[in-house]
Design a protein that fits this description.
The chain has 335 residues and is α/β, with parallel strands linked by helices. 30% of the residues lie in helices and 21% in strands. It contains 10 helices and 11 strands. The longest helix has 29 residues.
Length: 335
């Protein structure tokens, strides 16, 4: 039974321990709209339809439309959350380097690690009656360092009320993009310097100082056994050196790069451009087991200020950190 037009919207929906959309879904399940004209819309999108608010496209409404009533004003923080999240997703590279994302409710989190030696990396034959070799997994000594990243949205309602939501969304997406790039910077720092548990990445020096050769890449690749080198993170200087290597400049490689912007990668590893990588260094890792992302909730906005004071100053932030799972699954090549 459809109920979306009769729901009372209020700030309390942001404090239920669920996301705003999840709270709405519990009151107005999407499954009730199967086979109707509203099928495919989630609970929040149905509320936008209820109040006739168009948030994108050339016919998008102005910010003022959200504040026509107290009910529709309660939708505004979720609109900001979604726009910021979409901006973060558009430049998100962190998901390409983490093995898993752990969501927590508090601010204290202790990750786990596996103690590995050469013998534990292979499964030997176990004779009858003999003890089975053990792999030791323990919690890390130090907590994962979580960083709060965000921006302060400063604007009076009068300044933006006649702005089209489509244009306003562009600014919000940029805030999301800034957050995503900052999180990638945090991840790079943890890979290189460790997460505070004496697990800095092993550094492999190139054969000649300041010179990067294909042989150096081969050495880096072979050092990963029994892991696999799936991903490389490089800054602008090392990206230039890779692109100028004769091994990556044949006709086929040139056509691929000029046509798609993607270069032929060393040993099939995905290359991620990140200016946070120190000059002269290449980070290589096995994304399946090297890094864990720890996230305390989703993107958060000061909903009270957005609803009651109609913008003014409202913080948009997210809290996340990174921990190393298998320390030897990430290495640094230094030239």
């Amino acid at each position: 039974m459809s109920n979306y037009e009769n729901i009372k919207l209020e700030k309390g929906l942001y404090t239920t321990g669920k996301s705003f959309t999840q709270a709405l879904e519990s009151l107005d399940p999407s499954e009730n709209y199967a086979g109707t004209a509203l099928e495919g819309l989630d609970a929040y999108q149905r509320q936008l339809k209820r109040f006739g608010i168009h948030v994108n496209g050339k016919n998008s409404d102005t910010v003022e439309k959200f504040f026509k009533s107290s009910d529709s004003a309660a939708l505004f923080p979720e609109y900001i959350n979604r726009a910021v999240k979409k901006g973060a997703e558009s430049v998100n590279k962190v998901d390409s380097i983490v093995a898993t994302t752990t969501k927590i409710d508090g601010l204290d989190y202790r990750s786990i690690t596996s103690l590995e030696d050469d013998e534990s990396k292979e499964l030997k034959v176990v004779n009858e009656g003999a003890a089975i070799p053990a792999t030791t997994i323990k919690t890390q000594e130090n907590l994962v360092k979580l960083h709060k990243r965000g921006r302060m949205l400063v604007a009076s309602y009068e300044a933006v009320k006649f702005q089209r939501l489509d244009l306003f969304t562009v600014t919000l997406r940029q805030i999301g993009a800034y957050i995503a790039r900052s999180q990638l910077k945090d991840a790079v720092d943890v890979i290189i310097n460790g997460d505070g548990n004496n697990n800095e990445a092993a550094v492999i020096e190139t054969a000649s100082s300041g010179v990067l050769t294909y042989a150096d890449l081969i050495s880096l690749w072979t050092s990963f056994e029994p892991h696999q080198m799936t991903t490389m993170i490089v800054g602008a200087d090392m990206m230039s050196k890779l692109l100028n290597m004769p091994e990556f400049r044949d006709a086929s490689a040139g056509l691929t790069f000029h046509g798609t912007g993607k270069c032929i990668t060393p040993m099939g590893a995905e290359i991620i451009r990140c200016d946070s990588v120190p000059a002269g260094k290449i980070i290589a890792l096995d994304k399946s087991c090297a890094l864990e992302k720890v996230q305390a909730g989703e993107i958060i906005t000061d909903f009270d200020k957005l609803i009651d004071r109609q913008l003014e100053r409202a913080a948009i932030s997210t809290i996340a950190g990174f921990a190393k799972i298998y320390p030897d699954a990430a290495k640094v090549l230094a030239s």
